[in-house]
Amino acid sequence: MTDNAVLQLRAERLSRATRPFLARGNRIRRCQRCLLPQRQCLCDTLKPAAARSRFCLVMFDTEPMKPSNTGRLIADVLPDTLAFQWSRTEPPQALIDLCASDEYQPMVVFPSSYAGSERQVLSAPPPGKPPLFIMLDGTWTEARKMFRKSPYLDALPVISVDLSRVSAYRLREAHADDQYCTAEVAIALLDLANDNVAAQALGDHFTLFRERYLAGKPHHPSAITANEAESV
């Protein structure tokens, strides 16, 4: 079983918890790696891919612990993905150093409508250095808070992705048509950066995750069918 940065962050967050974290469906027995119900575990399907692009997930509080989180899928497919716990006042030094690195072109992934007039807004990664996509991973309310209250990211350009298709993500409801899950946005960014093989790999992984996540919900038709078959 391959470890990744999000799983490491999850373990660190759990070690600091003063009480158990109870997500929806907490009574279900889950694989402790992919966090899907054991019957729907997809760990044996993982296929890492190579990409010139790199991702950095800045995750809000308990986000790494949620079974519905899709940022973890990026780290499944792209092993060099980084993940940090968000802090307004005490950001990890490793994150600060990464933003100042000469090896990458860092940019914050967020809708352009939230960027101030003085902020550089990109519609595609610029040529030159490999792109470093910094993604603010949380609920929409949490992501907006991170965007507004992370002064150490203010000097970086914003890249905004226009997804013309309807979101296939139905694990948590979006609040507007232009709000998509973390994995969907990452797939679009990989396409923009011409990392097509990685985009396809992440797309396949996301599709399988979504199918198995929904199949593990008690009232989903496929879950009901499986339960009925077991009772025969």
TrEMBL record:
<dbReference type="InterPro" id="IPR039262">
    <property type="entry name" value="DTWD2/TAPT"/>
</dbReference>
<dbReference type="Pfam" id="PF03942">
    <property type="entry name" value="DTW"/>
</dbReference>
<keyword id="KW-0949">S-adenosyl-L-methionine</keyword>
<dbReference type="InterPro" id="IPR005636">
    <property type="entry name" value="DTW"/>
</dbReference>
<keyword id="KW-0819">tRNA processing</keyword>
<protein>
    <recommendedName>
        <fullName>tRNA-uridine aminocarboxypropyltransferase</fullName>
        <ecNumber>2.5.1.25</ecNumber>
    </recommendedName>
</protein>
<keyword id="KW-0808">Transferase</keyword>
<feature type="domain" description="DTW">
    <location>
        <begin position="27"/>
        <end position="218"/>
    </location>
</feature>
<dbReference type="GO" id="GO:0016432">
    <property type="term" value="F:tRNA-uridine aminocarboxypropyltransferase activity"/>
</dbReference>
<dbReference type="GO" id="GO:0008033">
    <property type="term" value="P:tRNA processing"/>
</dbReference>
